Amino acid sequence: MKIPSLLLLLAALLSAPVVRADDRRPVDRVAAVVNGDVITLSELTQRAGTEYRRVMDMPPGPERDQARAKALRTAYEAVVAERLVENEVKALGIEVTEAQIDGAIEDVKKRNNLSDDMLRQALASEGITLPAYRARLRKDFENHLLIAAKVQNRVKVTDDDVTGYYQSHLAEFAGEDQVKLRLILLQVPAGAPPADDARVKAAGEALLTRLAAGEDFAELAKQVSQGPGASSGGDLGWVKKGTMPIDLERVAFVLKPGQNSGLVRAKTGWIILKADDRRTGKAPPMEDVKERIREKLATEQGEMYRKQYIDELKREAIIELKIPELEAPPAG
User: Cα-Cα-Cα-Cα dihedral of 296, 302, 308, 309, to 10°?
Assistant: First the structure.
């Protein structure tokens, strides 16, 4: 069974933070006992990683105490789930071969264009040895195989599910709105005195008067613009949302085809925009995206059933909390 590519990405190295030498570590003690298996406080602080260190940098007081308890509870939930899964893996006799681990590492190297030395350096930068990384990959494999065995038969995505999702999420599949823009820029040097800014602004207002009288925007841009595309009439081509400064984007995407903006103060000077055309992205036919939808829905169902399965294991486990920070906070 193929392990999900997510587990093979180099970013997975960060999934279990590593705590380096730190004089803020508490004296170790038992934090919880799960089915007779001890979980220590040091395990939880290590699992909490950088978040725990961030919390301990806060000034002493109730806010830090609450943040520390939250970080420990989050780490505790993750460690308990891991221990329960490990026990189930052993009970079911699930085994991962060295060849599978080797294949996963080769996939990581290929995806990230890494040599053996580069991989070791990347691991070392996160404080992880290659044997420790192999052990982590083994656990990822075991966890995936167990969850797949327990929840795979529950995942069912029907054609009606796919159709319903497509019809209610058309905007998700549509392309982005775009506007075809032209630009006139009258530059104002950084740090220019107010009088210079006012002079350039007055020149821009004169251009607006000429445009209102019917002069061609493109011809004016060729004559006076100091911005991109000036030689081609200020043509910026088709522009998508998110690709221009937000103050200009707000102006550009409310313009109707053929409409000019007023003067807009930008970082580089005074700007006039014109929308030559607009187009709205349309959703592709369902046939083109149905497999992507089916995979998305199957993944979401699988994650839901995975959480349910872990919750079932927790309900069946005998758990003793040994430190007050792991108790759920009072409601409200």
Answer: -160
pLDDT at 17: 40
Residue 42 DSSP SS3: helix
* Predicted pLDDT at 146: 86
Reported residue count of the chain is 332
The pairing of strands 30-34 and 37-40 is antiparallel
In the sheet with 30-34, reading across from the earlier edge strand, the strands are 37-40, 30-34, 319-321
CB burial readout 188-200, b (16+ within 10 A) else e: beeeeeeeeeeeb
Rounded-to-integer distance, Cα 276 and Cα 4, Å:
46
Per DSSP, 239 falls in state E
**Domain spanning 175-279 has what CATH number?**
3.10.50.40
Q: What is the pLDDT at residue 200? A: 94
Contacts of 85 (CB under 8 A, 6+ apart): 142, 143, 146, 147, 310, 313
Q: For residue 285, count CB atoms less than 10 angstroms from its CB and return exposed for 0-12, middle for 13-18, buried for 19 or more.
A: exposed
Residue 221: pLDDT band with limits 50, 70, 90? very high
Choose between 177 and 120: higher pLDDT: 120
- Mean pLDDT for the chain? 85
Reported as half-sphere exposure (CB side, CA atoms, 13 A), residue 88 has a value of: 23
pTM above 0.90, yes or no: no
Every domain of the chain and the residues it spans: 5-151+303-326, 175-279
Residue of 107, 73, 78, 82 whose CA lies nearest to 5: 107
For residue 144, give every residue at least 6 positions away whose Cβ sits within 8 Å of its Cβ, in sequence order, or none: 1, 3, 4, 7
Helix (H, G, I), strand (E, B) or coil at 67: helix
Residue 84 to residues 235, 304, 324: CA-CA distances in angstroms?
Answer: 62, 18, 22
What is the band of 24 on the pLDDT scale with cuts at 50, 70, 90?
A: very low
Give the separation between CA 164 and CA 294, rounded to whole angstroms.
Answer: 11
The CATH number assigned to the domain with range 5-151+303-326 reads 1.10.4030.10
